Amino acid sequence: MNSRTVLLYGQSLLLSGVAASLAECPGLQVARAATWPEAGRRLAEAVPDVLIFDLANSNESHILPLLFKNPGLLLIGLDPEHNRAVLLGGQETRALTLERVREIVEGGGPS
Q1: Rounded alpha-carbon distances, angstroms, from residue 101 to 44, 57, 66, 98
Q2: Which of 40, 53, 50, 71 lies closest to 10, judged by CA?
Q3: Percent of the chain with pLDDT over 70
Q4: Which of 11, 12, 28, 64 has an alpha carbon within 20 to 30 A of 19's alpha carbon?
Q5: Cα–Cα distance, 81 to 101 (Å, whole number)
Q6: What is the pLDDT of residue 94?
Q7: d(Cα 96, Cα 75) in Å, to the nearest integer?
Q8: Is the pLDDT confidence value at 35 over 80?
Q9: Which domains does the chain show, CATH number per domain?
Q10: What is the DSSP secondary-structure string of the chain?
Q11: C-alpha span between 14 and 94 (Å, rounded)
């Protein structure tokens, strides 16, 4: 498997759990950004393959333009209230388990 870079944007406890889980995956390089300016800087520097964020605590005005600026970037919005992970590109998966998020990040695609 090729190395993939994942950027986690936000400060929620949910993202801390995701970060801990992804840190165990060989071939993944995981970075965190607590604020939007920091996330924007990391997006420009590291050009991650995946951006994971908490839907409840993120500003869509920052996230949605990324779909157009970075068409190869996989955007995963985690929604703990509705127990789902939303892949911003029009697809959604109902399995909000850390294992499923890891599969998606590693290239398993949505289901």
Answers
A1: 24, 18, 20, 5
A2: 53
A3: 86
A4: 64
A5: 16
A6: 55
A7: 15
A8: yes
A9: 4-94+102-108 (3.40.50.2300)
A10: ---EEEEEES--HHHHHHHHHHTTSTTEEEEEESSHHHHHHHHHHH--SEEEEEGGGS-HHHHTHHHHH-TTPEEEEEETTTTEEEETTTEEES---HHHHHHIIIII---
A11: 16
Q: Which two tokens stand for residue 97?
A: 């388990």
Q: Can you read off the two tokens belonging to residue 74?
A: 């996989």
> What torsion, rounded to 10 degrees, do the Cα atoms 95, 92, 1, 28 define?
-80
Indicate the length of the chain as a whole number.
111
Q: Which two tokens stand for residue 100?
A: 């499923």
